[in-house]
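[Automated response] Your request has been received and processed.

Submitted sequence:
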Amino acid sequence: MIGRLTGRVTQEDDGNVVIDVNGVGYELVVPLGTIGRAKADADGRSTLFVHTHVREDIFSLFGFASEGDRLAFRTLIGVSSVGPKTAIAVLSALPAPDLGQAIARKELGKLTSITGIGKKTAERLLLELKDKVAILEAAGPRGTASGAATAPISVASSSTADLLARALMNMGYRQGEADRAVEQLSAKLGETPLPELLKEALAVLSK
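Generated structure:
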């Protein structure tokens, strides 16, 4: 079992990364924004915490920026009928602390707004994670300089625009930057999946 890898990220594409560890490239599936949050040393090597998934003829590695993120992932795949890919999609759209808040507040709409999460799966998440909110909320920091990410969640927070802005702020962007990216992508908010919007927003902010 592989528990942790430290090396240079040589490839990053659509939720997949390759990390070179002493000449060996390991391919991992990661939630969006993982590499930006991962701890890096002075030589530019990133450390990812790994969940090794083995099932019949499948051997997959899933990488996370922190042990807390990995614990949140393992908590999610413990839910009935929620597999690793679904868990990655959830954590790409909602960082673990925000997911914990959504579960605590029974925000069904916020969960169903995630690509691949239907009403039945969302209801199952609310039911089976209600006693594990503390695990999710403790998984990692969600505050920002403005404090906006820890403010009470309003009914409007279930909108795609709000989810996108919150995801960006959880990655360390200021609210003004998040708002700018959301504004530039406003024409796509009603028709593009959130993970794709997040990738485009990161591209906008990198210019």
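Summary generated for your ticket: The radius of gyration is 17 Å. Confidence is low (pLDDT under 50) at residues 142-158.
If you did not submit this request, please reply to this message.
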